[in-house]
Amino acid sequence: MRRNKLDEAEASFQNAAALHRQAQDILGEGNDLCHLGEVHMQQNKLDEAEASFQNAAALHRRAKSVLEEGNDLCNLGG
Question: What does 21-63 look like in DSSP terms, one character per residue?
Answer without folding.
Answer: HHTT-HHHHHHHHHHHHHHHHHTT-HHHHHHHHHHHHHHHHHT
